[in-house]
Structures are given as C-alpha cells and as structure tokens.
Specification:
heterodimer; A: mainly alpha; Butyryl-CoA Dehydrogenase, subunit A, domain 3; 2 domains; two-stranded antiparallel sheet; 9% strand; B: 5 domains; 7-stranded mixed β-sheet; 7-stranded mixed beta barrel; elongated; Mce/MlaD (chain B); cell membrane (chain B)
Chain lengths: 216, 694
C-alpha cells in the first residue's frame, strides 16, 4: 500500500520511550502504570492479548460449527415446515435461480466469517512468526477485519426482521432456527477476538524483523 | 526522554502456561464444557429405537412423523425403509426415554390419517400436519420389545378408551357393519370393530367394545339388534318412515336393550347375537339363545324339485332348523343303484328342541338319535299349497326298520327318510282342481242364456204388452157397472124394503097402539118443549145482532170486525148447540111419527077415545102456537139485522178470512132463520097441521 511505500521507516512509540493510553490516547512516558487523565491502565504491549484473541477465536469457531449445521430459519406454512441451514438455503436459492441473493448470503454468512477467522488467526500468528506480508498490509487487514466484523450480523438482522414480520399464526410463520443463535455468538466472539488483538504488536514484529537493517 | 530505552528482549515464556494463562481461556473451556454437556445429555436422553412394521408407509416421513401417546409426541420416526423382501415398511421410531419402558409386549401402533366416513370426519388435524403414529400401551412395565407390527386400523380397545370387549355374532337376518357405532338411546356408547366371517361361514363375527361406564348397561340377557336402514310402513295412521339416525341409516349401527333385568354380569370376551330388529331381539329373550347348530343330512329317495335352501325343518309342526344346502347325490355303493337322490343338508338348532339339560349340538344329536331309533323319519312335505315350496318334516312312523345314526368326527349324521307326504297333497289339490274342472258350468250358462232369451221374447211379445190396457178397460167396465143407477139404486130399494118391513113390524105391534100414541104425544110435547127451549136463546141473539147492527153503522171497522167475530162466534155457538141442531130433526121426526100414528089411527078406525087425546094434543098445539107467536116478529128482526150485517159486510168484502167466516156464519144464520121462518110460517098458516100431520 502506498502508506507502506511512503514511509517504511516507522518509529514506534516504544522506540521513543513513550506509551499511549489506549482509551484516551494521551501519551505518557514509558513505564507509566495508569493514565493520568482517564485512569485506565497503561501497558506498552499487552502480551496476554494473544491469549484472549485465541481463546475468543476458538469460541467463535466452536459456535460457527453448529451455526452451519443447524437450521438458520424455520419457515412454517399451512402445510409444511421448512428448515434451512445457511448453506442449504443458499443452495436452494441457486436452484431456484436466485444466484445473486445466494451469492450475497454465501459471502455474508460464509466467506466473510471464514475470512475473519483466517485473518485473525493469521494476524495472531504473524505476531509470533515472521511473515512475508508487510506490516502495513497487516495493519490494513486488521482494520478491515475490525470494520467488517459488525456487518456479519446482517444475517442475524435478516432472521430477526423476518421472524418478527412473518407471524401469521397458522398460515405462515418464520422463526429463527437454532443456528441463528450460534451464528450470532460466533460473530460476537470473532468481533471480541478481533478487538482483543493488540495491533501494536504488528509493528513490534517489524522492529524485530527489520531491527537488523535498522541497526545496520 | 531523550534517553533511548534499552531494547527489550522478548523472551519466550518459560513459566508454565497456566501461570501466564489469561482468565479468558475460561470462556472456550466453558463453551466446550457446555457443548460436551449438551451432547452427553442429548445422548443420554435418547430413548431406544423401535421398529414398527406397517403395510404401507402412507404419509410417514423421516424425522417428521411423530409417535404420539394420548396425543402427546413421545417419539419421532428417524428412518423409514422397506422390510426384507419388500413385505412391508419399517418405521424406526426413536422413543422418548421417559415412556420407553412402558412400550412393551402389549403395545400396539397404528397410523392416524384423515378419514371421512359416514360417522364423520376423524383425524382432520393430520390433513395439515401430516399423519402421525398413535401408540397404545398400558401403564405397567412389561417385558421389553423393540419390533412391533403396526395395526391396519385404529384398534377398538386402546388406552384411554377402555370398555367392555365383547364379541358380536349375526343371526340370520342380522347385519354387522364394520366400524359402526353402538348406540344406546341415541348415545354412542360403543363401537363395532372389523367384522369377519366365522370359520364355518355361518356367521359374521365382530369384536365390539362398550365403553366404560356404559358397559354396566350390558348384562347376560342383553340383546343387540341392527338399527341400520329404515322401515317404511303404511297403516291406518298414514305412511310412516322410521329410522334411528342419519348416520346409522347410511352406515349401519347397532343398539341394545336389556329386556330382562335378571342377567348376570358380563365379562370381557362374551359373545352376543345381533338380531335383525327389535322385535326379533325381544322375542329371542324368551327363546333359548341360538347355539351352534347341529348339522345333519337327509337323503330322499326321489329327487323332487321345490326344496330350497332356508326351507324349514319341522318337528311336530314346530320349526327346529332349516335347510342349508340341497344337492343331488348318486352313490351306487350306498344305495345300490345309480338313481339321483336328493341330498339335503340341514341345520338343526339345539335350542329349539326343548332340551332340558345342556343346549349343545351333541345333546341334540343324542336326542335325535334316540328318536330315530324309535322311528323318527324325515319326509318332504308341502310348505304351502299356493307357493308350492317344500319343507322337511320329521314324523314318527310305525314299523320302521331300526336305524342307528352314525356319528363321529367328519361324519355328517344322516336322518333316514320315509315316504313323502308331497304326493298326497298334490293329489288332493289335483282332485279339487279336476272336480272344479268337471263342474257343468257351460251347460249351466247355456241354460241360463236360453232362459233369459225366452224371457226376453216373452216380454217383448205384443200381446203381453197389451195386457195392461185390457185390464184397465176391464176395470173401467167394472167401475161403470158399479156406478150404474141400478146398482146404486140397490140401497134405496133395500131401504124401501126395510121401510116396509118396519111397517109390517108396526102393524104387528098395533095392539099397543094407545100407549104408542100417548108416547107419541109425549114425544111431540117434548119436541115442542125442545123447540121452546131452543127458541129461548134466540131473542138474546137478536138483541146482540141488533146491538151489532146498531154499532156497525157507527163503530170503526176494527171494532166492527171484532164484534162481528164475537157475534158470529156466539151465533155459531148457539147454532152449534146440539139442541139447535136437533131442533129441525126432532121436529121432523116427531111430526113424522105423529103423522104415521095418525095415519094408522085413521086407517085403523080406532077413534073412540080420541078426544081426550086430541085435547091434550090441542093443548100441546096451543103451547106450540103460543111459543111460536113470537116467531114472526123474531124472524123479521133477524132478517133486518142480517140485511144490515149483509150490507156492512158487503162493503167490507175484501175477501179476507174474517169476512168469509162471517159471511158463512151469516149464511148459516140466515139459513137457520129461513128454516125457522118457513117453520113459523107453516105453523102460522096451519097450526093444526102440527097435530093433524098435514
């Protein structure tokens, strides 16, 4: 990215011996324990954040399995009860010719969550292990993940709106399936996981990785 | 601040993982625990899988079709597949663990699907939700079983609809309809299950249930009958259609009644008969219940047509059974020739034999065997002269060869036959018919026709028609003869003869002349007195008439009319008196007598002492004269009055009743007055004539 191209010589706050409050962004000298302005604890690097990332990531992944196995939507009409999983519903839509909608569903409910899992996992791993991806790209990736995370809830919104609108007693009714709960949990936990990631560590890698050339 | 911090060497955590571990790991652990817990629980809660074999899998869907018990889902069909060799459909049902122990050997399963029958609609909810499997089992844990055979239909007896289970059996004429209701006073209290035919094919048998608590209505003497269909009768009260309910009209139904209250309790499995109608059911109470019939066989020497199935078998005129089959039989070994013989299968109802001890086919056979050894034989007889059907009669015969009835397993006992009664009957009938045939009806008719022809000719004869005229002419002649003067003169001549005879008699009594004369004079005096007395009322009459006449000129018409009425009434009364009526007659008679007497006296010439007589006569005549002196004046007055009255009434001659009456009254009065006038004039002219008779 051009940001990376513009300036590859980035000096971190730690390099300058300061530390920023993560809450109110006030900069303090390194070693300050608590923010003098907002009172939140200040650490230069939250090393336990990776553990949180992994733990929440794991929970999110665990929830994602039943979210795809159980039916997302239960459509009850006068004569029949139809229960569709996320993928099953999308496949059915493709069979009915609604490829566009099916693609939207597949992207929103399958591709993006899976991408998020992979992105978070990649970021968490790249902190520990050298990566060919530049720090700027990883930072970018992190921001995208954090930004896009909330939009994964669109499936849940659809289910919620549908089930609240279509309640015609015996004629037709749409109820959320069990998968919707798990899907929501999965999204929540991946968001939490993404938030738990301390993005400053991306740059530490650079320090270590590019420390030698820097020191050179 | 410008001091560059020493680079921090990041060491891999050597401390134990748990020491550095964040508390956040609790969350995935917790999630894992929950997931495992849920998994274990669902596995633990999973009941056993049972297999139910159905004839077909209509509507059973995997993972959808529920197993219900008392309408609560207690399982779901997990899988449906064909049984080996495709003989059925196996539904694998995952039971709820809660009920699985109760699903034991006695359980039954059937598919509930929408059903539209004459009794109504059932299983309607399954139209929308799909079929479900209904299970029924009791509340006790029995030996477990995992493979079941599904029922084709809803069973009668199921948990929650307990009742008295009975067996129903048709009698002849009774009907059983599958799955029909049993009603009692119009309320459905039970149900007939699937009917099937009994082993011998003689009955239809069906399981039935009477639900609790109605089962107490059934006792050993309860009779069931068929209420399906309708009866139509036309009687003096008009036409009548009778049926119990529309449902039973269409689909059949049974009802029952306990006619005799002394029945014992009924236990499950008891058998009842279904009668055709209430009447036969009621009648059956007083007959012994029909038991399994005793089947026997009769071989008749001649094959005679007319014996039909269901023909009665009678013993001493009492029906004890019926013919169940008729066939010809040729058996050279048994009978010695190859003639066709009539072989009749009969069912004898042991209950009709009046057996005292046990009513069973065996007892009946024993009884009949004994009777057959004593000479009981079967014969064909005419059941009805008109219809010409035959029946089988069991009759005692004299000197019959001993016959021992053979019986045993697989042998139908044979009743020996004897000479049929049928020929006699036909002979009689033929005789009657031929006699009727031989009657000289045609001759009779010919004679009658001839007679009628003759009569017709006679009547149409001209001479005969003339007869009435001749008779009429004859009668006219007779009338002429009768009306002829000669014939009518006969009484007159008779009278004359009688007069002469009287004269002769009078002459014979001549010796008593004097006394007769005195009597005659006395009579004349009396007559004169009578005239006197009669005339005494006349002046009053005259006065009244005068008054009337006076008033008539002045009084208004009404008064005149009323007074005239009273006047005429009075006049009528006076003239109507016997005395007045008798007056002329008396006078005439007296004068005649005197006349005759005097004539006789004159002719007789006996006038010696007549003077005294004449004196007295003269006195009498004087008295008469005296009394008649007033007469001319009286007559004049009467005439005047009458003239006046006549004039008045003539003016009032409107032809009404009163005036007519008055006129007639006045005419009568005037006649009377004229009579009196003439009498008076005669007396006046010649008073002596009264005495002399001239």
């Amino acid at each position: 990215m051009e940001v990376a191209g513009q300036n590859t010589n980035i000096i971190s706050a730690r390099d300058l011996g300061v530390v920023a409050c993560m809450r109110c962004t006030q900069v303090w000298p390194a070693g300050t324990q608590a923010c003098g302005r907002c009172g939140s604890a200040i650490v230069s690097r939250d090393h336990k954040s990776l553990q949180r990332v992994w733990a929440l990531w794991l929970v999110g992944l665990m929830c994602y399995v039943p979210a795809n196995m159980y039916p997302m939507l239960q459509t009850r009409t006068l004569l029949s009860v139809q229960e569709d999983t996320i993928v099953g519903g999308a496949v059915e839509l493709i069979h009915h010719g609604a490829v566009g909608i099916a693609l939207i569903i597949l992207i929103a409910s399958v591709v993006i969550p899976l991408g998020k899992f992979m992105a978070i996992a990649f970021l968490a791993i790249s902190v520990k292990r050298p990566s060919s991806v530049s720090n700027h790209h990883r930072q970018m990736l992190y921001e995208v993940v954090e930004y896009i995370g909330r939009w994964s809830m669109i499936d849940i919104f659809v289910v919620a709106i549908m089930s609240s609108l279509v309640q015609l007693n015996t004629l037709a009714a749409v109820n959320p399936g069990r998968a919707s709960l798990f899907f929501a949990l999965s999204v929540i936990f991946t968001m939490l996981s993404a938030q738990a990631f301390d993005s400053r560590m991306i740059w530490d890698v650079r320090t270590r990785q590019e420390g030698a050339p820097l020191d050179e | 601040m410008n001091e560059t911090p020493t680079p921090v060497t990041i060491e891999p955590a050597r401390a134990s993982f748990f020491a550095n571990a964040s508390f956040v790991w609790i969350i995935p652990l917790l999630a894992l625990a929950i997931a495992l817990g849920v998994a274990w629980q669902s596995y633990n809660d999973r009941g056993p899988l049972i297999e139910i074999v159905f004839e077909n899998g209509a509507g059973i869907a995997e993972r959808e079709t529920e197993l219900r018990f008392r309408d609560v889902a207690v399982g779901v069909v997990e899988k449906v597949k064909f049984a080996s060799n495709l003989s059925g459909v196996i539904a694998f049902v995952r039971l709820d663990k809660e009920v699985s122990p109760y699903v034991d050997v006695g359980s039954s399963f059937w598919v509930v699907r929408p059903e539209l029958s004459a009794q109504g609609v059932s299983g309607l909810e399954t139209v929308l939700s799909g079929v479900y499997i209904e299970g029924s089992w009791d509340g006790e844990i029995g030996p477990p079983q995992s493979e079941f055979k599904g029922l084709k239909d809803t069973p009668l007896y199921r948990y929650g609809r307990e009742g008295l289970e009975i067996t129903l059996r048709t009698t002849s004429g009774g009907n059983l309809t599958d799955d029909s209701p049993i009603t009692f006073r119009g309320i459905e209290v039970g149900r007939v299950g699937k009917a099937h035919i009994s082993q011998q094919g003689s009955f239809a048998v069906a399981e039935a249930i009477i639900y609790h608590p109605h089962s107490r209505l059934v006792s050993a003497t309860t009779r069931f009958w068929d209420t399906s269909g309708f009866t139509f009768s036309v009687g003096p009260g008009g036409a009548e259609i009778d049926f119990s309910s529309l449902a039973t009209l269409v689909s059949g139904g049974l009802t029952f009644e306990t006619f005799v209250s002394s029945g014992g309790r009924v236990s499950d499995g008891m058998s009842f008969e279904v009668f055709a109608d209430e009447e036969s059911a009621r009648d059956s109470v007083f007959n012994a219940s029909e038991a399994e019939p005793l089947q026997m066989r009769v071989v008749f020497e001649d094959s005679i047509s007319g014996l039909a199935v269901d023909a009665p078998v009678e013993l001493s005129g009492f029906p004890i059974g019926r013919v169940t089959g008729v066939s010809g039989v040729i058996d050279a070994d048994a009978f010695g020739d190859e003639r066709v013989r009539l072989n009749a299968l009969i069912d004898i109802q042991p209950a009709r034999l009046g057996l005292t001890d046990e009513v069973t086919p065996e007892a009946a056979l024993q009884f009949l065997s004994r009777r057959i050894e004593e000479g009981l034989r079967a014969r064909l007889a005419s059941a009805s002269l008109l219809a010409g059907g035959l029946k089988i009669e069991l009759v005692d015969t004299e000197n019959a060869p001993l016959y021992v009835v053979q019986s045993g397993e697989g042998i139908i006992p044979v009743i020996p036959s004897t000479a049929n009664d049928i020929s006699d009957v036909t002979a009689t009938v033929a005789g009657v018919v031929s006699r009727i045939n031989n009657l000289p009806i045609e001759e009779l008719l010919n004679s009658a026709i001839q007679f009628l022809n003759s009569a017709d000719a006679l009547i149409s004869n001209e001479d005969l028609r003339e007869t009435p005229k001749v008779v009429r002419a004859l009668l006219g002649d007779v009338r002429d003869i009768v009306g002829s003067d000669d014939v009518q003169a006969i009484p007159v001549k008779l009278n004359a003869t009688l007069g002469r005879f009287e004269t002769l008699l009078a002459q014979l009594e001549k010796d008593k002349f004097t006394t007769q004369l005195v009597a005659a004079v006395d009579a004349a005096a009396a007559a004169a007195n009578g005239v006197n007395a009669s005339v005494e009322g006349v002046p009053a009459l005259v006065k009244q008439l005068q008054a009337v006449a006076a008033k008539a000129e002045t009084l208004p018409l009404e008064d005149l009319t009323t007074q005239l009425t009273t006047l005429t009434a009075s006049a009528d009364a006076i003239l109507g008196t016997d005395a007045a009526k008798q007056l002329p007659a008396d006078l005439g008679a007296a004068l005649n007598e005197i006349n005759a007497t005097l004539r006789e006296l004159r002719e007789g010439g006996a006038v010696t002492n007549i003077n005294a007589t004449l004196d007295s006569a003269r006195k009498a005549a004087d008295a008469v004269a005296t009394s008649t002196q007033d007469l001319p004046a009286l007559v004049e007055r009467v005439r005047l009055v009458l003239n006046q009255a006549n004039q008045t009434i003539a003016g009032y001659n409107k032809g009404d009743v009163l005036s007519r009456d008055a006129q007639s009254a006045l005419r009568d009065i005037s006649k009377a007055a004229e009579a009196m006038t003439s009498l008076a004039r005669m007396l006046e002219r010649n008073p002596g004539s009264l005495i002399r008779g001239r």
